[in-house]
# Entry
Amino acid sequence: MSKPRKGEPLKTPQYRGGVQALKKFLSEQLNYPEEALKNKVEGVVEVAYDVDGLGRILNVKILTGLGSGCDEEVIRLVKMLVYETAINKGKNTLTHKKLKVDFKLPKPKKVATQYNYQLTPATTKPNPAKSKSGGYTITVNLNKK
# Structure
């Protein structure tokens, strides 16, 4: 591990895999709280936390919450994050981070339209002369074998 030279910026802990990996982790691990689903709660939870030079998460604090279990879910997720180490000149650095987690209700699953029908043999033949609607009459004859 190389030490920063004079005038170089200090290394800060980065999430392993970068920003895209962080987004993927959050989307895969987020469990929408039952209470939030029941109450149809949506919105953004903003959280602040510190990452030390060894990549450990410290001081997790909700800045903007939603309640209904969403805040607790974000705290759970943040505590699971794994950052890379960032030691500068042999010193453990502390970095302040903020994160916004979006809670959107899942879209209802489309239910396939189902049609039920039953064909029954006609008991009487319709009289087309009596029909005044000008429409069509369809007669279905089923022959039993």
The first helix runs from residue 18 to 29.
